[in-house]
Write a structure and sequence with these properties.
Number of domains: 1
CATH superfamily: 5'-nuclease
Helix content: 55-70%
CATH topology: Rossmann fold
Number of helices: 8
Number of strands: 5
Strand order of the largest sheet: 3-2-1-4-5
CATH architecture: 3-Layer(aba) Sandwich
CATH class: Alpha Beta
Low-confidence stretches: 1-16
Mean pLDDT: 84
Length: about 150
């Protein structure tokens, strides 16, 4: 594997630049794996706590491509801490249960959810949970800090 180097509703929904805990879902981890610049920057950051929920680790482990799966799991192991997640509600479709487990894990960890899953962003918005898309996280948290440090 390559080494990689509170306020209003909108702020709640998108997170703020003061947030330091971020829980990634599988698609955001996938984006991070493809973005060496962001991965390198995050590997050096000591002011952030990057998290994954057990359901995300399970999703990564189910990645069909063996090489991609190995890289994703190694990235998660290298940069992310695992957090506990509430038990999904019985009777929900598997996809909904996974999305809700991810969102609730982020809430329980007091973290901003980072995802590129539009449905999950909508669920988080309706639940007034902090969430942001990968591109916004990259722009505001990763690159925003890098440009301030120069």
């Amino acid at each position: 594997m390559k080494r990689r180097g509170k306020g209003d509703a909108a702020a709640r929904r998108e997170g703020s630049t003061r947030d330091t805990r971020f829980l990634f879902d599988a698609c955001a981890l996938d984006r991070l794996l493809d973005d060496g610049e962001a991965a390198g920057e995050l590997a050096e950051r000591r002011d952030l706590r990057l998290l994954v929920a057990p359901v995300v680790a399970e999703q990564l482990a189910a990645t069909p491509d063996a090489a991609r799966r190995a890289e994703l799991l190694a990235l998660a192991e290298e940069l992310f801490a695992r957090v506990a997640a509430p038990t999904p509600e019985p009777g929900r479709p598997a996809g909904d249960a996974a999305d809700l487990a991810i969102m609730e894990a982020a809430r329980a960890a007091k973290a901003v959810l980072v995802t590129d899953d539009r449905k999950l962003l909508e669920i988080a918005s309706r639940a007034e949970a902090k969430a942001m898309a990968w591109r916004e996280f990259r722009r505001r948290v990763v690159l925003g800090r890098a440009s301030r440090d120069k």
